[in-house]
Design goal:
Number of strands: 8
Mean pLDDT: 84
Largest sheet: 5 strands, mixed
Order of helices and strands: HEHEHHEHEEEEEHH
Strand order of the largest sheet: 1-3-2-4-5
Shape: globular
Distance between the termini: 79 Å
Number of helices: 7
Strand content: 15-25%
């Protein structure tokens, strides 16, 4: 009887370890497959195609190699598991003019970003719509009736999702004027 209890306890431990490893493997695969972040000129072309085919909006993140704010935003927001469902519904492109991947050519169509990161949303065939994030104080701009009549609110996955939906739905002439 004692051997049976020991055997059952060992089997239970083995089952828990195997289940944990299986969950880890599955979650890592789910995080990196399906709709990954794309980079550079080729990534932007693929994201445009994906957006046209699926009706997804585009998310452009303009970064720089040695940008402290870019790394902080990546860690704080883009890698946050709470952002997974929001990011899954977007064709995502990272553009870095110093990366040598054609990002500099793509960025000729964008307004100049003085201090990275720069974040833009775009629906297929629509104008670029900026998303203002102040990384150092963890704030994001929530547009109001017009883009300029809004307010800053705390940066979070829920906040980003609300800003995303509001910005994409907003029809404001300021967006057309911002196009190069």
């Amino acid at each position: 009887m004692k051997h049976l209890a020991t055997g059952l306890a060992g089997a239970l431990v083995l089952l828990l370890v195997a289940g944990g490893l299986g969950w880890y493997w599955w979650s890592q695969g789910a995080r990196h497959s399906g709709n990954p972040w794309l980079r550079g000129e080729q990534g932007e072309a693929r994201a445009q195609q994906l957006a046209r085919e699926s009706g997804m909006a585009m998310l452009y993140v303009i970064e720089a190699d040695k940008c402290r704010r870019c790394k902080l935003l990546d860690k704080m927001l883009w890698q946050d598991p709470a952002m997974a469902s929001t990011l899954a519904g977007l064709a995502k492109v990272r553009l870095n003019p110093g990366a040598g991947d054609g990002s500099d050519r793509v960025l000729r169509r964008f307004p100049k970003v003085k201090t990275p990161p720069g974040i833009y949303l775009q629906q297929a065939g629509g104008p670029l719509k900026p998303v203002q994030i102040v990384v150092d104080i963890q704030q994001i701009w929530m547009p109001g009736v017009t883009y300029r009549r809004g307010f800053f609110m705390p940066l979070s996955a829920v906040g980003f999702d609300a800003v995303l939906r509001t910005t994409l739905a907003l029809e404001d002439p300021v967006f057309g004027a911002a196009q190069p």
